[in-house]
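Practice problem: predict the structure.
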Amino acid sequence: MLEKSMKAIVLTAPCRADEMTVADVPVPEVTPGHVLIKVHAFGINHSEILLRQFEVAQPYIRKPIIPGIECVGEVVDPSDSRLVKGQRVIALMGGMGRSFDGSYAEYALLPAANVFPVYSTLDWEELAAIPETYYTAYGSLTLSLQLTSADTLLIRGGTSTVGLAALQLARAIGARAIDTTRSEHKAELLRTYGADDVVIEGDDFVRRFLDSHPAGATKVLELIGASTLRSSLKVTATHGIVCHTGLLGGVYGLKEFDPIKEIPSGVYLTGFYSNRPTQEQIDGMMTLIERYRIRPIIGARFTFDQIPDAHTLAEQRTRIGKIVVTLP
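Answer:
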């Protein structure tokens, strides 16, 4: 029999990580068009840190709110959806943890459109590192960049969780992968994870990149964002594509950006927005992960009661790999 109450993290105003506490709240009642999931695990995301730090104060955030933009678990009540009870699923995006309660809870009531059945040999902990991170990487590489085995891919921000996922997926596709990082120490780690080359971020990046790769990159995954976008365009080969996906650099727009002058002739600029995944995309991603036996890189593991510690570690941005929270 389903419990009447559950443990959850609930936000009403901005707070420090150590001010988050686990509360007892009612298990949500199932409504048409929604699916009730028993949450087994979820990853910690940068957007959830921002939500806690300041964004929860914005009027467009429904309050009180249970954060969490992704989770993995099993269907408890499928309501009127295509899903069945006990089915293994992942859920992500589409307003989770902002427009409606998300995954920082023992149970999550989610729109059926946000919930995707999956086949995977990964355990719950490994699967929890997949949804938002690998979907963002997969969508950027396949839909926006149209990556093939003939490509040379430059990943700006290679040690980020999406960067690491993109490296694994690109290698599975057969592309040559060049990563960037700010640290020589992390450069060695990227090479062990499969990077064909690593270029250190910093001054004179364009010259240094082209000195070692004079043909340029045919595809560029821009995860740092606006602060490095101009230099990414300059190192892209003619008929190459730059995909602006991330905002790791903390710059959210370009001032006085002249597309005619600053996008080289014959170079294409696009983006990827991960808010509306489809079952077809999720199936393609999971097939690639299973076929090439990709195992996500997990940076740290926490229990549900340790969510404040997980957020503290995520804020420090020192750990390589996904931070995962598991529930009993």
